[in-house]
Design a protein that fits this description.
two-stranded antiparallel sheet, mainly beta, 103 residues, single chain
Length: 103
């Protein structure tokens, strides 16, 4: 996760990009993926408030470390960018990926 002062430019190689509001009243953020083990979560502290989060799906090769053999197919890095927001906004798809991602 990258904390920024304002919205960044789109990552050119990203195949799918989506933004959404993220209220953080406690100032604490935990990021964990659906296949992560309990000790793999990442913890971040920010000032309490409303943030805008952008997730960019960037093509990547398979992980260099051992990975589960059932994780076949394409691999992506999920880049999360976060910046303060002054007002609420709707979820927005900035770049639509392959048809299998839309529903």
């Amino acid at each position: 996760m990258t904390l920024l002062p304002s919205p960044p430019p789109l990552i050119p190689e990203a195949e799918h990009v989506v933004e959404a509001d993220l209220p953080v009243p406690s100032g604490k953020i935990v990021i964990s993926g659906p296949a992560d083990y309990p000790t793999q979560e990442k913890f971040f502290s920010v000032l309490p408030g409303l943030y805008r989060a952008r997730v960019s799906y960037v093509p990547a090769g398979p992980p260099e470390t051992e990975w589960n053999e059932h994780e076949f197919g394409e691999h992506f890095k999920y880049l999360v960018e976060l910046w303060p927001a002054s007002s609420e906004s709707a979820v927005e798809v900035l770049r639509q990926g392959a048809a299998v991602w839309d529903g």
